[in-house]
Amino acid sequence: MSKPKGFKYRSGQYIYVNCSDVSPFQWHPFSITSASGDEFLSIHIRTLGDWTSQLKCLFSKVCQPPSTSQSGLFTADLVQANNITRFPRLLIDGPYGAPAQDYRNYDVLLLVGLGIGATPLISILKDVLNNIKNHKSIEEGTSHNVNRSNTKRAYFYWVTREQGSLEWFSEVMNEVAEYDSEGIIELHNYCTSVYEEGDARSALITMLQSLHHAKNGIDIVSGTRVRTHFARPDWRSVFKHVAVNHINQRV
C-alpha cells in the first residue's frame, strides 16, 4: 500500500486493516512486513477463513494471476493501456506496539518465526538490511543518514511445514544474500514435513539439493539462495552457538 502522509512506525509493530468491499465493520490485525525506511507499507496475509478468502478473491479480480513458475502470489499490473484498475479501498488503524519493536536496543538478534508468524521478524530483517545499505552509502559518500541501531548481528530461524510457504518471503531472502557481503544476517530455513538430514528417507532430496546449490547457487526446495534444512532445529545447539560467539553482548 502507499504509505499515508505522516504515518510513522517501527519494525515489529502491527496495524488493523478494514476493507469495506468485504465488510464495512470488520477490522483485522496484521503485522507490518515493510521496514520503517521503505516508501510503501506492506503486510502478508494468509487465507484462513471467510474474510481473508473474500479479500483474496477481490484482489484476484484486479491483479494478474501468477505464472506457472511463481508461487500463488498475484502481481498488480498498475500500467494497463486505456484501463484504470480500481483496487479495493483499504483503511488502516495504527500502528500498535508489540514486544519485537525494541530490537534496536540489542547487540545481537535471535529471531525465530513459525509459518506466517514470521511476519514481524521479516520487517526487522528488512530494517537491519536497510541499515547495512545505509552504512555502505555513508562509506561511499552517497548518504549522510546516521544509523541509530545497536544491532551488530542477526540470526533468523524460520520453521514452516509446507514447502510452498518458503516462497512467501523469497524476495527478502535473496536481497539479504545479495547485499549482506559481511555476513551480518544469518538465515536458516527449516521445512518440517521432510525427515531430518542424515535420515535414509530424505537422502535423495538432500543429495539433489546439495548438487543443485553447488552448481547454481539456488536451493531447489525454497527457490532462493538460502539453503533449506529439514525437520526441526536443534535449539540446544542453536542457543549454544549464539552464546559462545557473543560473550558479554546483549542477545
Automatic annotation (TrEMBL):
Keywords noted in UniProt: FAD, Flavoprotein, Oxidoreductase
One GO term describing the cellular component: plasma membrane
Molecular function in Gene Ontology: NAD(P)H oxidase H2O2-forming activity
Coiled coil: none
The keyword Oxidoreductase is assigned to this record: yes
FAD-binding FR-type domain span: 1-102
Matching PROSITE patterns: FAD_FR
A Pfam family hit: NAD_binding_6
Database matches in PANTHER family: NADPH OXIDASE, RESPIRATORY BURST OXIDASE HOMOLOG PROTEIN B
The protein's name in its UniProt record: FAD-binding FR-type domain-containing protein
Species the sequence originates in: Brassica oleracea var. oleracea
Source lineage: Eukaryota, Viridiplantae, Streptophyta, Embryophyta, Tracheophyta
